[in-house]
Specification:
It is a single chain. By secondary structure, this protein is an alpha/beta fold. It has a single domain, classed as HUPs (Rossmann fold). α1 crosses α7, α2 packs across α7 and α6 crosses α8.
Length: 246
């Protein structure tokens, strides 16, 4: 087997394992994928498209790309359309924006753009999911994202939890799922490179200006001290029931 074939096999195995372990999919599900254009969401859509072609469970997949018009980063819409079309997944492109209420320097210090951008993107995804009759919203957070969030919550919020692999919303008939939760960031990046995923044209100007970047460095240092830190944190989250929220 080539490196690409071996990597694809490992990603698919962990993808299916996540479904079985955390009950992410069932027959009759209608799944909306949040497609940002980054390698994580592209990998998520590819794997969901592949899995939807298998007889059980039977589910339908659609995708949404939210374009934030007042933040200077960009993904090729034509590439996303081509990517989805090749995998027979309908793509919905939605444009939105938000009021910043201050100059760029003040916003960087207050970390407001990340919160407002995320909130408005989620709002658009929730709205479309309800319009389409979707009962699942799939997001491209991988295991590293969940572990970094766990550390952030402990250090800045004083609580031990993370983004669940499955989260049922209270205010609408929608469940958020994170099917990449058992996949590592390194494997996804390598797979994207071997598969020739097209990179984003412009990166978000605020992506390196947050606590998450510092937490990433802290996590890397922890891995140098203890190579098993990934498994230790993950096992702790599982023991405390933090990966599934019904």
């Amino acid at each position: 087997m080539t490196e690409l074939e071996q990597l694809q096999r490992r990603l698919r195995q962990r993808f299916v394992q996540a479904f079985a372990t955390y009950g992410l999919l069932a027959d009759g599900d209608h799944v909306l994928v949040g497609l940002s254009g980054g390698v994580d969401s592209l990998c998520l859509l590819e794997l969901l498209s592949w899995r939807s072609g298998i007889s059980h469970p039977q589910f339908k997949v659609e995708a949404i790309h939210v374009r934030m018009t007042n933040i200077d980063y960009e993904t090729s819409t034509s590439y996303l359309e081509h990517f989805c079309r090749d995998r027979q997944v309908p793509l919905h492109v939605v444009e939105t924006s938000f009021e910043t209420g201050g100059d760029a320097q003040a916003l960087r210090k207050q970390k407001q753009p990340c919160f407002l951008c995320s909130w408005n993107r989620r709002k658009q995804m929730f709205n479309l999911a309800q319009q389409l009759g979707c009962n699942k919203l799939a997001l491209g957070h991988h295991q590293d994202d969940l572990l970094h969030t766990c550390l952030m919550n402990q250090l800045f919020q004083g609580r031990f939890d993370t983004m669940p692999a499955r989260l049922r919303l209270d205010k609408m008939p929608l469940t958020i799922i994170r099917p990449l939760c058992l996949l590592t960031e390194a494997d996804i990046k390598r797979y994207a490179l071997l598969q020739g995923y097209e990179p984003q044209r412009k990166r978000c100007p605020y992506e390196h200006d947050s606590h998450r970047t510092a937490i990433r460095h802290l996590y890397e240092e922890a891995e140098q001290m203890n190579p098993d830190v990934r498994h230790s944190l993950w096992n702790a989250l599982e023991r405390e029931g933090k990966l599934v929220s019904c």
